[in-house]
Amino acid sequence: MKKLSILIPILAHILVGAEKLEVNAKTFQSDDKTNLIELNTDVFIKKANDKLWAQKVIIKTDKKRKPLEYTATGDVKFYVETQDGRKINGSAQKVVYDTIADEYRLYDNAKIQEQDSPNTITGEFMTLNNKKGQAYSQGAKDKPTTLIFLLDEEEDTKDSQSTSNKKQKKQ
Description:
With 171 residues, the protein is an alpha+beta fold. The protein has helices at residues 2-15, 153-170, and strands spanning 21-24, 27-31, 36-47, 50-61, 67-81, 87-98, 103-114, 120-129, 134-138, 146-148.
């Protein structure tokens, strides 16, 4: 109960602001000296439409208790919506989310897939930067990274026809 009475003001302070952070776990532990909050067993975190599930999450905060970094381990899964509106599901054994860079780093059996699309990236290490709209993937020594994506041939055909028509008009 003592831990809970200390943790409630910390979590309440984190929750203050424009976006609500919802945190569920079997156990919570915090340390004001190290600015760390540890969540264990069946962890679920939700902020706006973004969601994260894991067995353990450590939240590193600044002195004002604003989250700087989340480190999730143990069968990690997440869902994020990118700035351009794409919906991404991801998974790995370890995921680190840097709140300042708005970047996810995935380790060990990493996978991201665009929802309702075959667009998928797998690898042993991966980054997904929401701010920059960039993804990077690296395979292991004997396990290459894999990219699967849908080519929109109809758009390519339209673009080619449009370019041909412009060239013909110039002649």
